[in-house]
Amino acid sequence: MFDWFDPGSARCGGRWANTVRCTTRFATARAGVLLAAFLQAGTAGAFTGSIRFPGHGTSLSSLAFAPTIPVPNNPAVGQVVQSVSHEVGLGTPQVLCRIAETVAVNGTLASGSDTLFATNVPGLGVRYSIKRQAKGQFRNAPYATVFFPPVSHAAEYHIMAELVVTGPLGSGTLTTIPSLTMTFAGRCFETVSGTQHITPGSRFAAGTCSVGTRAIQVALPPRVSPSNLMRSGATPFSIGLDCAAPVRAYLSLDDAANPGNRSTILSAAAGSTAKGVGMQIMSESRPLSFGPHDPESGNLNVSFVGKMRAGANLIPLSARYVRTGPVSGGTVKGLATFTMSYQ
Q1: Which residues pair with 156 in a beta bridge?
Q2: Which of 41, 75, 85, 196 is the least buried, fewest Cβ under 10 Å from its Cβ?
Q3: Tens digit of pLDDT for each residue in 168-181?
């Protein structure tokens, strides 16, 4: 309640009341009104902007890995098995202050790492990373940073999740997967956060394959004249491969009669009587080179032969005669060993 003074009605001892005292009361009342109005206005306008996260839609959709994920052959620690990402957007309308971004992973760190987080599958971890520009570099979580809002008050916001080998790999279904929480705070907007989840249920299966036929007999034309040798055509055959999960298949060949052979021509094996004749094995009309018996020896002359689906597959190949010198009649035999690898 304010103490107002009316100079038209107050007298003291036949004269006006102390005008200094009355004026002081009046001024104090006015100052109180102005101060209250100022404080009220300041409270109403404390936040001038807002953060929209995600910038597209109302909530973060879950990321999802493939339903079946094959275990790679001889995986190395740090090897990325699969990655998924999406762009969710970040809106900053009327934000004129700096933005403090905190990115935290909700999970247990894998041993020996500060960016890989354990899943329920042995030897398999998750790594999250963020970038705010299409051409920018992904930054591994967790981290905290401060940045100024973009001039356009709208930015790209990319979230990526990777499955990474952290040790000896097991198999199983992904059920325990770390999540990612992003928080944005500043003095001119209310704090906003969002959590990125990954859909559970992906099956992590050992990507083993088995060869359907281990001994393959390829019958080339039995009678060919020397003049028609190169025109006798190619004889098709195939290697059967059964795989537990989709894989990329590789083939290596070694010449049983000449293990040091690194050319595309298979040497004549024991029992051959013809001269000047060799054979080639081809994939999609491309002659394959021979290599060491051990396909891991520097991966020399290992050929990619296609993507295999889960289940039965056929790898189409062919064989043909090739002239290696002056031809003389007789029989020709060849013996090659093939090794399949996959990842």
Answers
A1: none
A2: 41
A3: 888 889 999 999 99
E strand or H helix at 28: helix 19-44
Q: Which residues in 135-146 are b (16+ Cβ under 10 Å) and which e?
A: eeeeebbbeeee
Phi, psi at 71, each rounded to 5°: -75, 120
pLDDT at 197 over 60: yes
Residue with tokens 């916001």: 157
Same fold, 68-206 and 209-342: yes
Whole-number Cα distances in Å, 160 to 52, 198, 251: 20, 11, 33
In degrees rounded to 5, what are phi and psi of residue 260?
Answer: -85, 0
pLDDT at 296: 53
Question: Domain 209-342 classified CATH 2.60.40.1090?
Answer: yes
DSSP 4: -
Domain boundaries, the chain: 68-206, 209-342
Domain 68-206 has CATH 1.10.10: no
Q: Which residue has the higher pLDDT, 236 or 205?
A: 236
Phi, psi of 130 (to 5 degrees): -130, 145
> Token pair for residue 230?
């190169």
The string of pLDDT tens digits covering residues 89-139 is 999 999 999 999 999 999 999 999 999 999 999 999 999 999 998 888 999
Q: What is the pTM of this model?
A: 0.55
